[in-house]
Amino acid sequence: MRIRFLLFALYRDLAGAEEFELALPDGATAGDAVSALRARGGGSERLPPRPVVAINRHYASLDDRLADNDELALLPPVAGG
User: pLDDT 10s per residue in the chain (81 long)?
Assistant: First the structure.
């Protein structure tokens, strides 16, 4: 299955792109997708192993299963005041 990643702020800078696709096996979880992304290298390995994620614009757990053509967003921490 194909998953579309969306990356923002520092995560975009580390991975070198704000969006791209990866092929994953059927039944993969959001955590599996993050692991596959980190394994790409090129700075992606510096992404945290357990980021906050959203699947199809809804907050999700890393244990949630993905489906073909899902959009997986990695959400960096936000500071403010």
Answer: 999 999 999 999 998 999 989 999 999 999 999 999 999 888 899 999 999 999 999 999 999 999 999 999 999 987 665
Instruction: Give the tokens for residue 16.
Output: 């070198």
Q: Among 41, 63, 54, 48, which residue's Cα sits nearest to residue 5?
A: 54
Q: How many residues does the chain have?
A: 81
Q: How far apart are CA 18 and CA 4, in angstroms?
A: 11
Would the pTM count as exceeding 0.85? Answer: yes
Q: Phi and psi (nearest 5°) for 7?
A: -125, 145
Q: Find how far residue 58's CA is from the centre of its chain.
A: 13
> Position of tokens 């921490």?
77
